[in-house]
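INFO  loader      accepted 1 record
INFO  loader      residues=112
INFO  predictor   begin
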Amino acid sequence: MSEGDIMRSVWKEASRRGITLWRNNVGVAQHQDGSRVVYGLCTGSSDLIGFTPVVITEYMVGLTLPVFTAIEVKCPGAYPTKKQENFLRVVRESGGIALVARSEADLKEIPL
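INFO  predictor   done
INFO  writer      dumping tokens
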């Protein structure tokens, strides 16, 4: 099996288990004019990224757990696209933190 085949299999099983993942390609593309675009989360980031909904159990009380956070930055008066809204909705519905920020003040929505 190729790495692509394994990835599709893992992705499908993760989905069946309620884990939400997205493909994360990382690299650099060069335009015809020579300019470069770096894409992906960061060098070394995983092929599939996302989150797993976790029910807090007695064992976890007192632990600090990371919560997936997505912030869509927009200028005042601008709005997210339908795809961006959908991404934010999925993060929220799965227990993550997702919001549109037009200034630092909007970060007050994040419960700390």
